[in-house]
Amino acid sequence: MDANLKAKWVEALRSGEYKQIPMELHDREGGYCCLGVLCTVAQIDMDDTGPAYRVLERITGGYAPLVTLNDDKGKSFAEIADWIEANL
């Protein structure tokens, strides 16, 4: 993963500016999953999720662990940021 983008993503996750939600990149109430935050930072259009997920796959090298952390395990953005720093 590009180091500059990774640093911006981790910073955004820790910023407190994003309300965390599961199961969607973003919602109408201003919530984001960790991958939705990445879309915002990387300026990826989230309105068409198919292409967005393909770009996310390429950027992260496989986003399934992030989905598990965010959606299934309910990890906070700070915990996910720690995981990203250690693993991507």
Please describe the topology of this protein.
Elements: H1 3-14, E1 19-20, E2 31-32, H2 34-42, H3 49-60, H4 64-72, H5 77-87
Parallel strand pairs: 1-2
Outline the structure in words.
The protein is mainly α and 88 residues long. Helix content is 60%, strand content 5%. It has a two-stranded parallel ribbon. The longest helix is centred in the first third of the chain and has 12 residues. The model has no long low-confidence stretch (mean pLDDT 97).
How would you summarize what this structure contains?
Helix content is 60%, strand content 5%.
What low-confidence regions span 5 or more consecutive residues with pLDDT below 50?
none
Q: Strand content of the residues, in percent?
A: under 5%
Report the radius of gyration as a whole number of Å. 12 Å
Nearest-integer average pLDDT: 97
Give descriptors for this structure.
single chain, 88 residues, mainly alpha, two-stranded parallel ribbon, 2 strands, 60% helix, globular
